[in-house]
Amino acid sequence: MADDRLRGLTILLTRPADDVRTTLDRLGEHGATALAIPLIAIGAPAESEPMDRALRDLAGYDWMIFTSANAVRRVDRRLRELALDWSYPPKIAVIGTATARALERCARRADLVPTRFVAEGLLEALPATLTGQRILFPRAEEARELLPEALRARGADLDVVTVYRTCLAEASREPLRDALSSRAVDLVIFTSASAVQAFFELVGSAPLPEALQFACIGPITARALEEQGRRAAIVPQEHTIDGLIEALLAHPSRR
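Above: the chain's sequence. Below: its structure in token form.
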């Protein structure tokens, strides 16, 4: 049920423009003033041939792994561009409910969704031995190597292909600085390490309000924030937007 527990709080969302509408509505239902200034944009990979080659050979894989909704959307788009579809894909493992929902929009359901929405959780859910298993891992251009290294250590025949890259949203530099300099923003929400890096790159040497707080969707994002010399006031146990909003509602300093 909607309430006004976040009334008087101005929250800045930093996700790509296509991802924020529902979150804006959710925060507004709780009385918050929510601003959307996307700090990163999702672009095509510099080279598409490795992705295309893998997608044409989907039937040859045993597993396909997605760790982000962006990767799902990019694969779906490229399949359609290549006049292919999801008819004969391998089993699919995903990290997170948002990634699972993105897959469902492509008329596919995930075969495996770990209870912990991080790479370590997926490794716990997968078999300890993957010898003879051919796995396709479509991902961002820059990503942690923990998952590929662990899968190969278990004997998997792994193909890692870049299906998208994150780009700095230069057009957001001035709007971001203006919003922060007005001191109207109380809390910044980060849903990825790349958004954290983009935030501090776009802010540059401009001072931040002393009372500004940060919320991170999970531990990897929080770690990226710590590398910038800041700590997250909120990191939900459930690493989803819904979990983050619930943690924000329960946070004692939300007003």
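Residues 10-39+169-250 form a domain with the Rossmann fold fold (CATH 3.40.50.10090).
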